[in-house]
Amino acid sequence: MLQILGQTEGNLIATRATGNLTEADYDKLLPLLNNIVEKHKKIRWYFEMEGFEGWKPKAFWEDLKFDVQHANKFEKVAMVGDEKWEDWMTDLMKPFTSAEVKFFEINHASEGQKWIEK
After folding, report:
1. How far, in Å, CA of 80 to CA of 30, rounded?
2. Which of 42, 51, 55, 86 has an alpha carbon 20 to 30 Å from 2's alpha carbon atom?
3. Is residue 43 a contact partner of residue 10, using CB atoms and an 8 Å limit?
4. Structural domains of the chain sorted by starting position, each given as residue range(s) with its CATH number in brackets
5. Structure pTM?
Protein backbone atom coordinates (compact mmCIF):
# COMPACT_ATOMS: atom_id res chain seq x y z
CA MET A 1 0.00 0.00 0.00
CA LEU A 2 1.18 3.52 -0.76
CA GLN A 3 0.31 6.45 1.46
CA ILE A 4 0.80 10.06 0.35
CA LEU A 5 2.26 11.95 3.31
CA GLY A 6 1.44 15.48 4.45
CA GLN A 7 4.80 16.96 3.42
CA THR A 8 3.75 16.66 -0.25
CA GLU A 9 3.71 20.13 -1.81
CA GLY A 10 5.35 22.00 -4.66
CA ASN A 11 7.84 19.70 -6.36
CA LEU A 12 8.17 17.46 -3.28
CA ILE A 13 6.20 14.23 -3.00
CA ALA A 14 6.45 12.25 0.23
CA THR A 15 5.20 8.67 0.36
CA ARG A 16 5.24 5.66 2.68
CA ALA A 17 5.15 2.17 1.20
CA THR A 18 4.07 -0.86 3.23
CA GLY A 19 3.43 -4.41 2.11
CA ASN A 20 3.16 -4.68 -1.68
CA LEU A 21 2.54 -1.82 -4.09
CA THR A 22 -0.40 -2.48 -6.40
CA GLU A 23 -1.78 -1.07 -9.63
CA ALA A 24 -4.33 0.90 -7.54
CA ASP A 25 -1.42 2.61 -5.76
CA TYR A 26 -0.02 3.72 -9.11
CA ASP A 27 -3.45 4.89 -10.26
CA LYS A 28 -3.27 7.32 -7.32
CA LEU A 29 0.45 8.16 -7.59
CA LEU A 30 1.05 8.72 -11.30
CA PRO A 31 -1.32 11.70 -11.71
CA LEU A 32 0.46 13.42 -8.79
CA LEU A 33 3.89 12.80 -10.31
CA ASN A 34 2.75 13.95 -13.77
CA ASN A 35 1.29 17.12 -12.21
CA ILE A 36 4.61 17.88 -10.49
CA VAL A 37 6.49 17.41 -13.77
CA GLU A 38 4.07 19.73 -15.61
CA LYS A 39 4.22 22.48 -12.98
CA HIS A 40 7.77 22.25 -11.64
CA LYS A 41 9.75 20.21 -14.22
CA LYS A 42 11.69 18.33 -11.51
CA ILE A 43 10.55 15.94 -8.76
CA ARG A 44 11.97 15.60 -5.25
CA TRP A 45 10.76 12.31 -3.77
CA TYR A 46 10.88 11.22 -0.14
CA PHE A 47 10.14 7.46 -0.33
CA GLU A 48 9.78 5.78 3.07
CA MET A 49 9.53 1.99 3.22
CA GLU A 50 8.23 0.31 6.36
CA GLY A 51 7.47 -3.38 6.09
CA PHE A 52 7.79 -2.94 2.32
CA GLU A 53 7.76 -6.23 0.42
CA GLY A 54 7.93 -5.04 -3.19
CA TRP A 55 5.62 -4.63 -6.14
CA LYS A 56 2.80 -6.66 -7.63
CA PRO A 57 3.72 -7.42 -11.29
CA LYS A 58 1.40 -4.83 -12.87
CA ALA A 59 2.53 -2.17 -10.38
CA PHE A 60 6.18 -2.95 -11.10
CA TRP A 61 5.50 -2.48 -14.82
CA GLU A 62 3.78 0.89 -14.21
CA ASP A 63 6.70 2.01 -12.03
CA LEU A 64 9.26 0.95 -14.61
CA LYS A 65 7.44 2.72 -17.46
CA PHE A 66 7.21 5.98 -15.50
CA ASP A 67 10.85 5.80 -14.39
CA VAL A 68 12.12 5.22 -17.94
CA GLN A 69 9.96 7.99 -19.44
CA HIS A 70 10.88 10.49 -16.71
CA ALA A 71 14.42 9.47 -15.71
CA ASN A 72 15.71 13.02 -16.14
CA LYS A 73 12.76 14.56 -14.24
CA PHE A 74 13.96 13.51 -10.79
CA GLU A 75 16.08 16.05 -8.91
CA LYS A 76 16.53 14.19 -5.62
CA VAL A 77 15.27 10.90 -4.18
CA ALA A 78 15.51 10.08 -0.47
CA MET A 79 14.99 6.36 0.09
CA VAL A 80 14.24 5.57 3.74
CA GLY A 81 14.02 1.99 4.96
CA ASP A 82 15.13 -0.69 7.37
CA GLU A 83 16.10 -3.56 5.08
CA LYS A 84 19.50 -4.13 3.47
CA TRP A 85 17.90 -4.86 0.07
CA GLU A 86 16.32 -1.40 0.14
CA ASP A 87 19.79 0.11 0.49
CA TRP A 88 21.01 -2.04 -2.43
CA MET A 89 17.98 -0.97 -4.49
CA THR A 90 19.01 2.65 -3.91
CA ASP A 91 22.50 1.92 -5.24
CA LEU A 92 21.05 0.12 -8.28
CA MET A 93 19.00 3.22 -9.20
CA LYS A 94 21.95 5.60 -9.36
CA PRO A 95 23.31 4.75 -12.84
CA PHE A 96 19.84 5.15 -14.39
CA THR A 97 19.06 8.67 -13.22
CA SER A 98 20.69 12.07 -13.05
CA ALA A 99 19.04 12.63 -9.66
CA GLU A 100 20.86 12.69 -6.36
CA VAL A 101 19.77 9.45 -4.68
CA LYS A 102 20.49 8.76 -1.04
CA PHE A 103 19.49 6.00 1.41
CA PHE A 104 18.62 6.70 5.05
CA GLU A 105 17.96 4.11 7.75
CA ILE A 106 14.40 4.34 9.09
CA ASN A 107 15.68 5.54 12.49
CA HIS A 108 17.24 8.51 10.61
CA ALA A 109 14.08 9.39 8.65
CA SER A 110 14.18 13.00 9.84
CA GLU A 111 17.63 13.38 8.22
CA GLY A 112 16.14 12.12 4.96
CA GLN A 113 13.30 14.64 5.24
CA LYS A 114 15.72 17.52 5.85
CA TRP A 115 17.98 16.41 2.99
CA ILE A 116 15.15 16.17 0.44
CA GLU A 117 13.89 19.64 1.39
CA LYS A 118 17.29 21.37 0.86
Report:
1. 20
2. 42
3. no
4. 2-117 (3.30.750)
5. 0.88
